[in-house]
Structures are given as structure tokens and as C-alpha cells.
Amino acid sequence: MKADIDKMRKELVDARRVYEYEKKGNEELLEQNRAMEKNLIAMAREIEKLRADQASAERRARGVGGYGMLNGSPETRYPGPYGDVYGAGPWGSYDKRGPPRR
Question: How many domains does the chain have?
Fold first, then answer.
């Protein structure tokens, strides 16, 4: 009977040792995962920054509208309430209310 008790104690000590070893390993993996997640977030921010820089560089390279159009100059006028041309939409040629078409 005493031999059985000693055997059970030894198994319990071994089980505790294995449990602590696995727990330590899981903590290390958890720390690695946290570090990788921080790296991933930093890389995502950097990618978004680079995309924004690329888009602004492309706009500047094209030169569409000049400086005022790109940067919202106060000298630009607002469009009228009906747009530039009345009836210029896809059904504009069928609109009978506007001036006669040539």
C-alpha cells in the first residue's frame, strides 16, 4: 500500500513538472504572438501611409486642375444648383423642357 502511495506521489510530481513546462511554453508563444501582432499593426500603418503618399504623388505628377484644384483654393467657385449644363445627364437629350437641341 505504501509503495502505491509513493508511486502516486511520484506521478503527481511528474504531472506538475510537465504542467509547469507546458505553461511556460504557452506563455512564450503568447508573448511571441503579441510581438508579431504589434509588428503586423505597424506594417499596416506603414502601408496605408505609403499608399497615401503614392496617391498624392500621382495626383501631383498628373497636374490635374493645377494647384488650386488639388488643394481646395478659396478662389475656386462652387457649381450652380443644377450643375454646369441643364439636362446634361444620360436622359438629357430626351428632355423637352430645356432649350432646343441642334
Answer: 1
> Is 18 part of a structural domain of the chain?
yes
pLDDT at 26 over 70: yes
Q: Structural domain of residue 63, as residue ranges?
A: 2-94
Asked whether residue 79 is assigned to any structural domain, the reply reads yes
Phi, psi (5° rounding) for residue 68? -65, -35
For residue 75, the Cα-to-chain-centroid distance in whole angstroms is 35
3-state DSSP percent of the chain in helix, strand and coil, to 5: 70, 0, 30
- The predicted-structure confidence for 49-86, as pLDDT tens digits, reads as follows 999 999 998 888 776 555 545 455 555 555 555 555 55
